[in-house]
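Subject: complex prediction, re-run

Hi both,

The earlier run crashed halfway through, so I resubmitted it with identical inputs.
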Amino acid sequence: MKKLINNPENVVKEELKGIELAHADLVKVYYDPDFIVRADAPVQGKVGLVSGGGSGHEPMHGGFVGKGMLDAACPGAVFTSPTPDQMLEATKAVDGGAGVLHIVKNYTGDVMNFEMAADMARGEGIEVESVVVDDDVAVEDSTWTAGRRGVGLTVLMEKIVGAAAEEGRSLKECADLARKINGQGRSMGMALTSCTVPHVGKPSFDLPEDEMEIGIGIHGEPGRHRIPLEPADKITEMLLEPVVSDLPFKEGDEVLLFVNSMGGTPLIELYIVYAKAVELLKAKGIKVVRHLIGPYITSLEMAGTSITLLKMDEEMLKLWDAPVKTAGMRWGI
Amino acid sequence: MTIQRDDVLNWVRDYAQVIEDNHEMLTNLDREIGDADHGANMHRGFKAVLEKLPSVEDKDIGTILKTVGMTLLSKVGGAAGPLYSTVFMKAGMTIGAKMEMELSDWVQALEAGIAGVTNLGKAQLNDKTMLDALFPAMDALKKAIADGASTGDALKQSAEAAHQGMLATIPLMARKGRASYLGERSIGHQDPGATSTTLLLESVAKKWADC
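This time it finished cleanly. Structure:
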């Protein structure tokens, strides 16, 4: 293992220290239990947005804490769900009296821990709603699995619902909007290489030089199929086709196209994927009206990409364009 | 013979050592069909348990087990955190403020723990989870008691049944947890959760053999 770390056991704590020093204007960092809140939390009368998950997906979620997006993020160990005590403290820290919305990615551990935290917070008199994101079409059979995973759509949901909360919408309105987004967004990802969890010290799966893994999640877990490597255009088609046909996205739809790097894939390659995706969508009469390109929900140093499509409407476009000021996403301010 | 408070403490300490010795093996099993963190998470959790234990070692069995459960909940994370936490919390609540217990108390405690896991994880037998070790262990424990086995023998038979249940997860296709995303590719691998659970019950049988 070759990594820019000091001690595998301290990576999350040392990362938090860096975030604290770099972004003191945006966030406050708390330790034991670990969580990040926006600098002006709690904002009175505003719905608090809390998310969290394993570390190793940076900038998600800590990088999305700030005005117009999340009020708090709870980082777990690398690829491991955070714990209820973190979520409870974060929830209390951001409750401005209008209730708190938990945005939870659909993984067994995340769902269980957030459920326990929501119960505890309600026990302390805080109104809590939870929305589970499950946009990954690579999980074909939801009945006999833990269900579809929450992947790229999470980033878009945190931005759009964050803007809605900033506008002063109610907890119910924010939760309804989040569920609407979950209902009209889909994703699929692939890996060119594996990644190495620091405390494990070796790659999470072995992927030969001439093969790729299609349908991966974001935790270095292997995907559904392993096949010979193909050119970018072909890979883009293999990712986009199941995404489009699942919802399905139809002729005349206006979409946000999110081409994400799994961490190791550079922008030069993402733009190649983006160009092909726009071409394929155009041929289907689907119009790309907004885009997001870059490493926003990563799996450490994994090379690979994921494609997310979200069907947009006027309301969502306005919220997407609204000002946001976080370490990982910033415009309009 | 009864199971004393110190027997419970010895078991918790022994299991922490078993995790210390086996965390890499557990993580490697999880690397094959999950996300390569089960051993590391359990290791972090039980190291914290060992640090916490001195503060409650003069307390009753229920308090000790609940303390283990609360510590695991805040230190383990993932799915294993809430699940193992539930096992210890429910067991502790069931046994209550006793300084010694009968095997029948332990059966009730374990039953409450299994109910807690089932409720939280919504898994069934043969879903390739820790329940595939827990269910057969429970059945064997009850059968051994009905057959008039000693405490030590009953626990040993229960641990052996867990071990068989653990091995029986190898040909199964995972239907819960992160391994379920692999579909048929999860077949042929031993479930990490069933493995750590078997180690737990083997530790019980070892430390309470003479009770």
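Residues 5-33 of chain B form the longest helix (29 residues).

- K.
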